[in-house]
């Protein structure tokens, strides 16, 4: 399925598929709010969720749909997407540091 067929709002904002109880979604939601990025939050019960989830390869939340219909799945990937387009490197540059960073994310994100 082509990601571009995932519908995004006409007003140019992002769509965040999430759930109130999801800590992973909380990370993405908090980031979008803090950065002042306009987004519409939708539940996994929304009619378009299955299509977005299929484009994201796995049916997990959070999933972000960009105004041009690109789909980004995973809270860390959502943060990295915005940090990279604003020129901020938020991932380590060496393989060892990157491995440690991923381990911290897996351990830390489990609460
Ligand atoms: N590494 C992912 C984990 C996301 C995740 O596991 N989300 C849970 C909800 S809190 C989910 O969607 N679970 C449904 C499933 O695994 O099928 C992230 O940070 O976004």
Provide a descriptive summary of the structure in words.
With 111 residues, the protein is of the alpha+beta class. The protein has one domain: Glutaredoxin, CATH 3.40.30. Helices cover 41% and strands 14% of the residues. The chain is built from four helices and four strands, in the order E-H-E-H-E-E-H-H. Strands 2-1-3-4 form a four-stranded mixed β-sheet, sandwiched between helices. A hairpin with a 5-residue loop joins strand 3 (63-65) and strand 4. Helix 1 (23-35) runs parallel beside helix 3. The protein is globular, with a radius of gyration of 14 Å. Bound molecules: glutathione. Residues 22, 24, 59-62, 74-76, 109 line the site of glutathione.
What are the salient characteristics of this protein?
111 residues, alpha+beta, Glutaredoxin, 41% helix
Number of domains: 1
List all distinct small molecules, including ions and cofactors, that are bound in this structure.
glutathione
Please give the order of strands in the largest beta sheet.
2-1-3-4
> What is the global morphology?
globular
> What is the CATH domain class?
Alpha Beta
Q: Helices and strands in order, then pairings?
A:
Elements: E1 14-18, H1 23-35, E2 39-43, H2 49-55, E3 63-65, E4 71-73, H3 75-85, H4 95-108
Parallel strand pairs: 1-2
Antiparallel strand pairs: 1-3, 3-4
Bound molecules: glutathione.
């Amino acid at each position: 399925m082509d990601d571009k067929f995932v519908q995004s709002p006409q007003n140019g904002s992002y769509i965040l598929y999430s759930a109130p109880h999801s800590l992973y979604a909380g990370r993405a939601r908090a980031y979008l709010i803090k950065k002042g990025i306009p987004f519409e939050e939708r539940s996994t019960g929304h009619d378009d969720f299955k299509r977005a989830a299929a484009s994201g390869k796995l049916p997990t939340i959070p999933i972000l749909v960009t105004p041009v219909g690109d789909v980004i799945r995973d809270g860390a990937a959502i943060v990295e997407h915005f940090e990279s387009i604003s020129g901020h490197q938020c991932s380590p540059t060496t393989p060892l540091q990157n491995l440690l960073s991923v381990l911290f994310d897996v351990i830390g994100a489990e609460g």
